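Re: your question from the hallway

Yes, I did run it. Sequences:
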Amino acid sequence: RKEVEQDPGPFNVPEGATVAFNCTYSNSASQSFFWYRQDCRKEPKLLMSVYSSGNEDGRFTAQLNRASQYISLLIRDSKLSDSATYLCVGQMDSSYKLIFGSGTRLLVRP
Amino acid sequence: DTEVTQTPKHLVMGMTNKKSLKCEQHMGHRAMYWYKQKAKKPPELMFVYSYEKLSINESVPSRFSPECPNSSLLNLHLHALQPEDSALYLCASSQEGGSYNSPLHFGNGTRLTVT
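Structure:
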């Protein structure tokens, strides 16, 4: 079983839709989590850190459920510019090694 | 705009060539990383430097040789590469490697093609 697993998608949604991605992790010692977005042939860019209490940044909401060992990302009012691959990343204990999920591809259509 | 700068953006090299990739950050971060990314795959960790010392080498072949001249600079020296080494090479930095909630900040990458 992979340490961080994501549904690869693609998720194909119309503009204005709400879409949610889930990510599961296997190591209960994992401490910190992040969502990155990556456009085609570009570098990953930090979208948001994920906290147990949940955090929101504009149209984006991230939540961490430690009991069920999953992280979620909710995107409201999808824009065409949200089309990208979304990478779920976990930091295992105090290691330098961040574990990347394989990414979920989102396509927002007009 | 990225705060981690990588050069060159593109590189084509033959299997007998020697080249270097360069990375610079001015955010005062103390950990720097090299990742390799193939198409439609997540980034794979290659090396980590923390406080200018090599902390992690993920069993990378010796044809890849990292160097950290100071806390702001990270190089990756390439020699006798194979065509399968063609990929996007990403440099990243983090504020305190090994501490919690210390996300990576990536450079825009070097797209390497080995012919």
